[in-house]
């Protein structure tokens, strides 16, 4: 019996330096090519498709389409900042949804937070769509922050916390649920007690 199968062979075609969107710093990379081969007795014999090229960061091992080499550092910064703003607004919305509903004062607060803190306009329709998706998928603020905050820098973590505090206090004084949630956010964002208190105090002083 002849054993026939397929396998992918990956080879490094080139090396260089680029701005890694994951590391957010210049890093070395490998330009790699992956190509499927027909195998006979586990030995690759005939290529059965064209080679697929991709870029792999030597530091974080993330892989990217080769077009990443054409994007300069400043363009990457703009894209990353826009992504952070969207993620931070979603975080604020999830904080509001923690008690199972969203009130008119909370909607108005989210509008102000998006515009003033994250330079982003968001209308009721988009808020409703995001809230509906989060509710249907069972996304919680803590799980979301745990997943996406790893790529935030210290300044972004502070800013996101301030937005979440403003969202949590939209209806007045913080209740036990909001207080517990914000304390959990401090832990997830890896902020010290002093950093947490400083960020909240700065937010309280905005109205003065």
From TrEMBL:
<feature type="domain" description="Co-chaperone DjlA N-terminal">
    <location>
        <begin position="87"/>
        <end position="199"/>
    </location>
</feature>
<dbReference type="InterPro" id="IPR007791">
    <property type="entry name" value="DjlA_N"/>
</dbReference>
<dbReference type="InterPro" id="IPR029024">
    <property type="entry name" value="TerB-like"/>
</dbReference>
<protein>
    <submittedName>
        <fullName>Tellurite resistance protein TerB</fullName>
    </submittedName>
</protein>
<dbReference type="Pfam" id="PF05099">
    <property type="entry name" value="TerB"/>
</dbReference>
């Amino acid at each position: 019996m002849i054993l026939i199968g397929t396998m992918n062979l990956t080879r490094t075609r080139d090396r260089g330096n680029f701005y890694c969107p994951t590391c957010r710093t210049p890093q070395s990379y490998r330009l790699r090519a992956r190509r499927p081969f027909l195998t006979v007795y586990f030995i690759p014999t005939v290529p059965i498709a064209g080679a697929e090229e991709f870029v792999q960061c030597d530091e974080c091992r993330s892989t990217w389409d080769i077009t990443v080499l054409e994007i300069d550092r400043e363009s990457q910064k703009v894209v990353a900042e826009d992504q952070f703003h969207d993620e931070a607004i979603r975080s604020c919305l999830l904080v509001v949804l923690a008690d199972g509903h969203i009130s008119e004062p909370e909607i108005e607060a989210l509008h102000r937070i998006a515009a003033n803190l994250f330079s982003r306009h968001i209308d009721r329709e988009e808020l409703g769509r995001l809230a509906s998706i989060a509710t249907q998928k069972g996304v919680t603020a803590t799980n979301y922050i745990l997943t996406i905050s790893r790529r935030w820098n210290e300044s972004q973590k502070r800013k996101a916390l301030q937005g979440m505090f403003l969202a949590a206090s939209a209806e007045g004084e913080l209740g036990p649920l909001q207080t517990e949630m914000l304390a959990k956010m401090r832990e997830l964002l890896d902020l010290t007690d002093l950093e947490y208190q400083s960020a909240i105090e700065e937010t309280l002083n905005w109205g003065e």
